[in-house]
């Protein structure tokens, strides 16, 4: 895997009017940014909330997985659980319909505490998971995720068991109802962009480069004097921050949190999103999330149109995932890269 | 044995005391004080027996999983789906022919053939790419789960054992002493569970014998250690891979029939048994058959005792065992580094 993506890096004609760092941004990125910023002008509430809102939130959780898998070589299935943990903490410390448990703290205390608990949880899971390598990591993180799921389902004193918490609302900050389509769209867009840029930045920082070194050859990095275990655990902590923020957004979007939010199915879905999108570049998870959400939203109509019963949505997702994994291990980004390489090859051939 | 005692006198003493206490708990009628503190002996004995027999079922599922992993480094996350498929096939055959024994044969064969198809058409082409294989098995399990839901629906199915296995058998273990007559009352236990547990033990012993005492077992063990060297020495390793995958998948199918008789078959059982086998092989040690047996026994007992003595957190307890084992012995109890 390439150390960092080139998809949005170089290229672009230089104009002396702009500073260096702005000139380095690909025109396609500008187009995308304008499109996303002005989307609420022409898209209805459903598209804003149910398609893009969901895609940003799921994309952020998948991004935290992509960071660990792509740069750290550790496929962690615990990211959705970290997100669920943050959501639970928000509901427990803040407000919900179940005020016997919810403590009713103000938002400026609830959100940081929820994030801190989620990061601590993610770090401890990471500390356990880094004792293992490769394929074992998947299994251990899957087991931790299921333990969390069963624990929240059985525990009624803190996690309110099977039903979880509902009527969890975002705080009415600046007098805006963040649950409405357009405010939530911009909120999730902001955090998705921020986490995307953060991952991009960290991947090029000295920590990120060391992490990629650990991924490629842990023994050599150890011999060079790097603390391999500490780097890996720190990567889990950083990923947990992103997943935690996404988890709080997810709870606002859903309006509730229950054990099913972080069950085995959603945990696997996050892996599917990240792999389908591609683990090469931080943009992959968002592409994967958009594909997943569009499929989930419109598959019913498509299936009915083909004459299949509408419940076969999982089959469609499973088959699509299987095909992607079988034919393009790098996901959609891999397909894109291959297509471009072929195009370049054809162009360079003399006719 | 003697050397072990000489080397670790304290540890052997502790083991001896534990075994003696356990034997006493099982054999002797309990005094009133113990009953008051711990509940009736019948509950304890039932939990013990249920745990051991559940361990037998877990062993059947997990041994195929660990065998496939040990040889091919393929973490088959579709193993739970193979289990459920075997169960459904067994159910259909039992309904159709009325023969419970025959359904084992068919379930084993059908799932083994399915495993061969998977190995030949898919896994063979991505050898050595661990992550990709795992992802593919996740995809297969999603597709299989939905296809099975399509065919068999969301209902619960139970496979009925034949008449000669229905009912309880009286074991020679004292449950309580009757207060009225002073005669001992013996524990009754379902016949079918005992038979199935015996079968699991037989399968385990046969597997151990095959692996450790025969030529094919030698080949497989050599493949676990170094498959390139084995291939270089003229063994047709692809054939060995196919055979092991078929056998492991077949065992999962067989376990499906057992599970359908013990408990019930429904969507979601595939994930339950996948997680159970994951925990079992992580606790026992990846790729080790003896480890799978030990892990299965531990997890089965933990689950049953947990559900009796602390019902809320029984499921969490098994995962806690796994976390503790990982923290102190990451390669599993009997795993090799």
At the first level of CATH, the class of chain B is: Mainly Alpha
**Adjacency order of strands in the biggest sheet of chain B:** 1-2
What's the count of strands of chain B?
2
Please provide the ordered H/E string of secondary-structure elements of chain A: HHHHHHHEHHHHEHHHH
Largest sheet of chain A: 2 strands, antiparallel
User: How are helices and strands ordered from N to C of chain B?
Assistant: HHHHHHHEEHHHHHHH
Largest interface: A-B, 36 and 37 residues
The geometry of chain B reads as globular
Overview of the structural elements:
The complex is a heterodimer of chains A (351) and B (337). In chain A, helix 4 (45-72) packs across helix 13, helix 5 packs antiparallel against helix 6 and helix 6 (107-129) packs across helix 7 (135-154). Chain A is built from 15 helices and two strands. Chain A starts with 19 loop residues before the first helix and ends with a helix. The longest helix of chain A is centred in the first third of the chain and has 28 residues, at 45-72. Chain A has a two-stranded antiparallel ribbon with strand order 1-2. Chain A is mainly α and 351 residues long. Chain A has a domain at 46-287. Chain B is mainly alpha-helical and 337 residues long. Chain B has a single domain, classed as ABC transporter involved in vitamin B12 uptake, BtuC. Helix content of chain B is 73%, strand content 5%. Chain B has 14 helices and two strands. In chain B, strands 1-2 form a two-stranded antiparallel sheet. In chain B, a hairpin with a 6-residue loop joins strand 1 and strand 2 (184-190). The longest helix of chain B is centred in the first third of the chain and has 32 residues, at 41-72. The radius of gyration of chain B is 21 Å and the shape is globular. Chain B starts with a helix and ends in a 9-residue tail after the last helix. The model of chain B has no long low-confidence stretch (mean pLDDT 83). The A-B interface holds A 75, 128, 131-132, 134-136, 138-140, 142-144, 146-147, 150-151, 154-155, 264, 268, 271-272, 275, 311-312, 314-315, 317-319, 321-322, 325-326, 329 and B 73, 75, 122, 129-132, 134-136, 138-140, 142-143, 145-147, 149-150, 271, 275, 278-279, 282, 286, 312-313, 315-316, 319-320, 322-323, 326-327, 330.
């Amino acid at each position: 895997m390439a150390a960092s993506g080139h998809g949005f890096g170089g290229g672009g004609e230089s104009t002396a009017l702009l500073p260096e760092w702005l000139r380095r941004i690909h025109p396609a990125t500008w187009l995308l940014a304008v499109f996303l910023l002005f989307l609420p002008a022409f898209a209805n509430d459903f598209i804003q909330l149910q398609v893009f809102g969901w895609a940003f939130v799921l994309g952020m959780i998948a991004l935290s997985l992509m960071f660990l898998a792509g740069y750290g070589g550790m496929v962690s299935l615990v990211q959705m659980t970290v997100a669920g943990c943050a959501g639970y903490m928000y509901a427990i410390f803040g407000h919900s319909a179940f005020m016997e448990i919810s403590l009713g703290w103000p938002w400026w205390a609830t959100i940081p505490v929820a994030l801190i608990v989620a990061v601590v949880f993610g770090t401890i899971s990471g500390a356990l998971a880094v004792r293992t390598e490769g394929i074992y990591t998947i299994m251990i993180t899957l087991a931790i995720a299921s333990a969390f799921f069963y624990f929240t389902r059985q525990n009624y004193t803190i996690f309110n068991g099977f039903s979880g918490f509902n009527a969890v609302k975002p705080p009415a900050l600046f007098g805006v109802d963040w649950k409405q389509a357009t405010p939530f769209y911009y909120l999730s867009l902001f955090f998705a962009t921020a986490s995307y840029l953060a991952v991009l930045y960290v991947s090029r920082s000295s920590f990120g480069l060391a992490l990629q070194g650990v991924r490629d050859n842990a023994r050599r990095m150890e011999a060079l004097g790097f603390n391999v275990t500490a780097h890996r655990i720190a990567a889990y902590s950083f990923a947990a921050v992103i997943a935690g923020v996404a988890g709080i957004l997810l709870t606002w979007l859903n309006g509730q949190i229950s054990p099913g939010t972080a069950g085995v199915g959603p945990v696997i879905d996050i892996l599917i999103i990240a792999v389908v999108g591609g683990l090469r570049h931080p943009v992959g998870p968002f592409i994967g999330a958009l594909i997943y959400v569009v499929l989930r939203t419109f598959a019913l109509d498509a299936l009915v149109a083909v004459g299949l019963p509408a419940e076969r949505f999982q089959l469609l997702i499973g088959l699509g995932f299987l095909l992607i994994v079988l034919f393009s291990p790098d996901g959609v980004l891999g397909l894109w890269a291959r297509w471009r390489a072929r195009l370049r090859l054809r162009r360079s051939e003399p006719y | 044995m003697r050397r072990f005692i000489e080397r670790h006198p304290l540890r052997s003493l502790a083991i001896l005391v534990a075994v003696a206490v356990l034997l006493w708990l099982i054999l002797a009628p309990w005094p009133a004080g113990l009953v008051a503190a711990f509940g009736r002996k019948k509950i304890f004995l039932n939990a013990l027996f249920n745990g051991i027999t559940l361990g037998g079922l877990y062993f059947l599922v997990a041994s195929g999983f660990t065998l496939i992993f040990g040889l091919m480094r393929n973490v088959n996350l579709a193993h739970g789906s193979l289990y459920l498929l075997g169960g459904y096939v067994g159910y259909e055959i039992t309904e159709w022919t009325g023969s419970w024994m025959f359904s084992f044969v068919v379930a084993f064969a059908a799932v083994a053939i399915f495993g061969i198809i998977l190995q030949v058409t898919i896994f063979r082409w991505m050898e050595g790419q661990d992550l990709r294989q795992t992802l593919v098995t996740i995809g297969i399990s999603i597709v299989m789960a939905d296809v099975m839901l399509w065919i068999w629906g969301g209902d619960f199915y139970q496979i009925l054992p034949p008449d000669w296995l229905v009912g309880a058998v009286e074991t020679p273990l004292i449950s309580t002493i009757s207060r009225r007559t002073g005669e001992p009352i013996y524990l009754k236990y379902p016949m079918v569970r005992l038979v199935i547990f015996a079968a699991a033990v037989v399968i385990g012993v046969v597997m151990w014998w095959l692996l450790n005492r025969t030529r094919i077992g030698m080949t497989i063990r050599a493949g676990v250690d170094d498959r390139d060297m084995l291939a270089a020495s003229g063994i047709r390793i692809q054939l060995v891979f196919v055979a092991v995958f078929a056998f492991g998948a077949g065992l999962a199918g067989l376990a499906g029939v057992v599970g359908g008789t013990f408990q019930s078959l429904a969507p979601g059982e595939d994930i339950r048994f996948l997680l159970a086998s994951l925990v079992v092989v992580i606790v026992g040690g990846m790729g080790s058959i003896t480890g799978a047996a030990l892990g299965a026994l531990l997890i089965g007992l933990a689950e049953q005792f947990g559900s009796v003595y602390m019902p809320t957190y029984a499921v969490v307890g098994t995962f806690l065992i796994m976390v503790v084992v990982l923290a102190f012995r990451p390669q599993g109890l009997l795993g090799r580094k």
